Give the backbone structure.
Amino acid sequence: GLARKSVEYNHLSPYIVIHEADWNHLSPLFSAGSFDRVVVNPPYFSPGAGKQSLTPAARLARHEQPGTLQGLADSAARLLRNGGVFCLCHRPERLADVVVALRSARLEPKRLRPVQQRASDAPWLMLWEARKNGRPGLSVLSPLVLKNPDGTPSQDYQSLFRVPDRQF
């Protein structure tokens, strides 16, 4: 899929392994507590919310069906070792839903970073980091601004894609 292509394009294959699977059926594939980190870009819309996509593939990508945000959080918690990190991106309008789902799965929200197209825009995405069985305490980070006022890529955006300079 797209995640695998992105990893290959950015020469990150030695560092990142992509697993594509239905989060409702992970038990036979992975044992409990077998991951240090789980990263997910889930469907953003609850069933019946948002504009309904015309194609089945688009509906599956955009709407929680057959899974739910709570099911995703529960699956991530099962996969993570104690203290493991869960990262996901989600829409600002689902902020309360994300907090409820994370906490009920024993994934304590630790860091939250809004993402904005331009500094003058409202956030359109939220980047979450939660820790399995972590202590309470959420840090809200400064927004990640993707574009300068003139539409060129921001310094933040450019720094995310300087792969050769990264240390792992």
In short: The two ends are 24 Å apart (CA to CA). The helical segments are 2-9, 56-62, 69-79, 95-104, 155-160. The chain has a mean pLDDT of 85. Residues 69-79 form the longest helix (11 residues).
